[in-house]
Amino acid sequence: MTMDNLLKTIERLKRDDAGVIALVDARIKEFEETCKKPCGEIFKELCFCILTANFTAEKSIKIQETIDDGFLTLFESQLADKLKELGYRYPNIRAKYIVEARRYKDSLKEIVESFDNEYESREWLVKNIKGIGYKEASHFLRNIGYKKSAIVDFHIIDLLARCGLIEKPKTLTKTKYIEIEGLLWKIAEKSSMNLAELDLYLWYIETGKVLK
């Protein structure tokens, strides 16, 4: 696949596939509604994004739905046991990260909204929340209604590499992340959509699914 083929595939989905269009539109509305929810719900979305690091989004969604308010209340050992019981790969360290992040549970939304732009919010998340890198911070912001950060995960990297648009990096440094995000911006502009929408379409092209 080339850049032209990728753009044509995106356009075909946007024009002809009513099912995908409906799923993408529903997800975007869901994200926009999430930002209006109470602080606890915003924090649980952060917990979901902490879980997705080096783990599948699909399994993380199921774990998030099962644990639910437990992210707010369980002791670290209880949360680790629950994560282990649910088949999570890194139960102890992620339970530790989530419990430590609770210091921001009631102020997270206010903090994120206090910055002048989305990228400053992302920098704060990366610097202050253990277990959150640029991918996870971008994922969190997208899931609470922001639309200017790219979620550069291995699905997106594999797709871009197959299109000949990048060489698959051995490690994803901040510089490389920003570079790939810039490329995704160009694709989004050519496709007349924002990065939140583009991510969902690219995920569908790569996986056949539209997840959060």
CATH superfamily of the largest domain: Hypothetical protein, domain 2
Report the radius of gyration as a whole number of Å. 17 Å
What fraction strand? under 5%
Instruction: Report the structural category.
Output: mainly alpha
Quick one: CATH class of the largest domain? Mainly Alpha
Summed up, the helix count is 13
Overall number of domains:
2
N to C succession of SSEs: HHHHHHHHHHHHH
The rounded distance between the terminal residues' Cα atoms is 25 Å
Please specify the SSE layout and strand pairing.
Layout: H1 3-16, H2 18-34, H3 39-51, H4 57-67, H5 70-73, H6 76-85, H7 91-101, H8 108-113, H9 118-128, H10 134-143, H11 154-162, H12 174-190, H13 195-207
Helix pairs in contact: 2-13, 3-4, 3-10, 6-7, 9-10
Defining key terms:
single chain; mainly alpha; Endonuclease Iii, domain 2; 2 domains; 13 helices; 69% helix; globular
